[in-house]
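ZP: hey, is the NAP complex queued? I don't see it on the tracker
AM: it wasn't, my bad. submitting now with these inputs:
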Amino acid sequence: MIQNFILEGKTALVTGAGRGIGKAIAKKLALYGAFVIVNYNGSREKAEEAVLEIKNQGGNAIAIGCDVADFEASKAMVEQLISTYGKIDILVNNAGITRDNLIARMTEQEFDEVISTNLKGAFNLTRHLSKYLIKNRGGRIINISSVSGVSGNAGQANYSASKAGLIGLTKSLAKELAARNICVNAIAPGFIETDMTKKMDERVAENIVNAIPLKRMGNTEDIANAALFLASDLSGYITGQILCVDGGMTI
Ligand code: NAP
C-alpha cells in the first residue's frame, strides 16, 4: 500500500509559523496529514494566510497568537489547545529572532531578547507540553537551531549562544524523555532565504554562498523536508541529534 499521509491523526504545533521556515514546516506537515496549529506573535494576517493556504492544499489548520518568550502566555496557549483539541503529538520550536551586533557594542536588551525568544521560548513550550506528551507515551520535539549554534558566528554572540543552548536542551531532553518514547532532535539550518537573511549586505551574502559546498542558499523547503522526516515514524530510532541542513557549510 502506498502511504502518503504519514502524519495522519497527528497534531503538530509549529511556533512562528506565519512566515519563513515555520510556515514551510507547517505547510509540509499538513500536506502529509497532520492537523497543524500555526502559532504567530506579530504576524496575525500572515498566519491566517498560512492556514488558508493549508486548507487550499486539502489540509487542516488553525492559527493562534502567543509570544513564546512569555512563560505564562505559553502555558495558557498549551492548556487552551489541549482542552480544545485533546492532544499535541509534534512540537516544532521554530520561533526565532536576531539582534546582531559586535560584542563591544551589544546591549543588554539585544542579548536578553534573543535568549528569551530563541532559547527560553523553546523551554517554555516544551515545559508546558511535556506532561501531555509523557501522558500519551510518545511524541516528537524538533528544535530549530542554527549552524551559528554549531560553529559560532562573529557579530552573533547572542544568537549563537541561544542556538547552542538549544542544542544542549535537545540532548538533555532526548535523554530525559526517551523512556516515554519521545524523540527530541534539532535542525541546524545553514543560510536560508527568508526575511531573516534578506536584511544582509549583498556582498556578505555572496561571500557566504561562495563558501557553501553546494554553492547555493538553502530554501525553506529544504528545512521543511528535514522536519517532516523528524516528525514522522520514519525517524523513530533517532533522538538527541543535530541535523545540519546547510549545503555542507559545517563540513
Ligand atoms: P523569519 O522569517 O524572520 O521568521 C521568524 C519567525 O519567528 C516569525 O514567524 C515570527 O513570528 C516568529 N517569532 C519571532 N519572535 C516570536 C515570539 N516571541 N513568539 C512567537 N513567534 C515569534 O525567520 P526564519 O528565517 O523563518 O527563521 C525561523 C527559524 O529558523 C528561527 O529560529 C531562526 O533562528 C532559524 N534559522 C534561520 C536561518 C536562516 O538562514 N533564515 C538559519 C538558521 C536558523 P511573527 O512574525 O508572528 O512575530
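AM: back. The radius of gyration is 17 Å.
ZP: great, adding it to the tracker
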